[in-house]
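Many introductory courses stop at the sequence. We go one step further.
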Amino acid sequence: GTQECLKSQADFIKEVLTGYDWIGAGREHDGGGEMMAVFYRKEAVTPVRSGHFWLSETPEVPGSKSWDTSCTRMVTWAEFQCNEGGRRFYLFNTHFDHKSERAREESARLLLQKTRELAGSAPLIVTGDFNAPAESAAPWKILTEGGLQDGWVTACERIGPEMTYGGFKAPDPAQSTGNRIDWILAGNAVAVTRAET
């Protein structure tokens, strides 16, 4: 799952990342702007259906905004079928607002509601830049108390620094607390064996 991805970047990644394709749409009302593009390995999985919704009070309206969000925010989702074995799972990818705490909380509630509506009891993975510290912020609590598990917390093995926000600098282990704002969550019988940053 990518965040802040432009179409030209997605096309470039597809060109150099042999064997992958992507699903996505720009977050603005005209389909332009940044995407939450989802990349998948064609040899491993096939998309069955996919879609988008906006993190607002009118989630089906492209480009819609609510809750004092500073810019348009959205979710790209897909149902995939494993090419070997035929098992299906869902992936949701998002990017929460960086300024409005209310927007992050309401976005978490909407995301949880939509995962239940779309995936039901099927295995699911949620990826995103949540712009809030894991294990302490309200959006993390809403999502984990709602049944999703944080892959970093539940992984049997963790590799690399815990922090995911470094201000475009090398990670400083001394400042890692509260800087894990990018999460991979899982639900409905998905187990995480290894997490790596």
